[in-house]
Amino acid sequence: MTGCCSSNPQNLLKCPPSDMQILRNTTNLKTGEISHLYKRFCLLGKDSPSFPPKRLAKRHFLTVGHLARNPILAILLKAMFKERKTLTFVNFARFLSIFQANTLKTKKEQLVMTSEKKKRLLFSMYDTDMDGIISHEDLIVIVHRLYGDLMSSQQVLETAATMIFEMDTSGTQKILFEDFSDSLNVFDMEETLVVKIRED
Fold it and tell me: How many CB atoms lie within 10 A of CB 47?
C-alpha cells in the first residue's frame, strides 16, 4: 500500500517560480534541468536551519565525501562563490549552466558566449589571488594542488615556469586573459568541460 507518507521527499521539492523564471530568462537551462538542479541544491543544504535551504555555504560542499576528496574543490568553490559568503539557488544554477551540454538547436551566439564564460571561469580558477592576471606564483599553487603528490617541489616550479613561457605572449612573465584565451583556441570549448544535466 502506498500513500503520501511513502513518497520520496525529493519528489515534493519544487523550484520557486521566481527562480525558475530568472533562470529560464538568463540561461539555456530547460525547466526539467532547473528542477533537477534545485533538488541537488536542497540535498546539499539538507542540514540547513530551514528547509528547503535558501542559501548554501562552502561547508555544505566540503561535507560531501566524493566532493571533499576532489583536489581542485577549493579552486572550484573560489570560482563559484567569488566574493560571496553564501550562494542562492540562482547563483548555483547559473554557475553549473556554464557546463551545460549543447544540442543541435543551440544558437551560434550562445555557443560563443558559453565558450567565453568557460575561458573566464578557467582563468579565474588559475588566478588564485584574484588580481586579474596569472602569475608564476598562481601557477605554482595550481600545479601543486593538482600534481603535488606526483611531483617534487622542483618539478612543480619547472612546470609552472614552462606554462608561463608557453602562454606569455606579452613578455611580462605573467599571463593576461588574452594570452590565456588564445592558448585555449586549440580546443573546441563548446565541447570541452561539458556536463549532462538531468531533467526531472
Answer: 10
